[in-house]
Amino acid sequence: MKNIRPIRRAQREQRKAERQRVNKRCCPFCIEMDHTAGRHHDSRLKSEVCPKHHDVLTDLRLDAEISMCYEPDSVKRVALALRSVSVYHHMLGDAEWRWADLLDGGSSNGASKSLPTSSRKRSPKA
């Protein structure tokens, strides 16, 4: 995904680094619920993720300019929810690709190829 606003991303990264001075390890007590479609778009769809990956998913959604604010227009709200869920699925797809590489005898050090990107071009924003 393209980072449309690199300055905002850098500011978020700096704030996150200040909050997380110590590298947190994931345990059953620090699992967070990610509102996969966005809390204001579908409050019931949730998935369990560790704090690190919750931050990663949030950053990816913000980089893609997926608004997490309530959208009164139901068509636009569903479009935002679908885009938000697609970020989650893209991250999940990358993990599944790595697992398949391991089964094929690929390297487990992260040097293998990632999920191929779609050749479909995005429509320009209005």
- Biggest sheet strand line-up: 1-2
Tell me the overall shape. Answer: globular
Please estimate the helix content: 40-55%
Beta-strand share of residues:
5-15%
- Secondary structure category: mainly alpha
Sheet of most strands? 2 strands, antiparallel
Radius of gyration: 16 Å
Number of domains as seen in the coordinates: 1
Number of helices: 3
Number of strand segments: 2
Mean pLDDT over all positions: 80
Q: What is the string of helix and strand elements?
A: HEEHH
State the separation between the terminal residues, measured CA to CA.
19 Å
Unreliable segments (pLDDT under 50, ≥5 consecutive)? 119-126
Kindly describe this structure:
This protein has one domain. The chain is 45% helix and 6% strand. The protein is built from three helices and two strands. It is globular and about 50 Å long. The C terminus is likely disordered.
Question: Care to give the gist of this entry?
Answer:
With 126 residues, the protein is mainly alpha-helical.
List the SSEs and their pairings:
Layout: H1 6-19, E1 32-35, E2 46-49, H2 51-63, H3 74-103
Antiparallel strand pairs: 1-2
Helix pairs in contact: 1-2
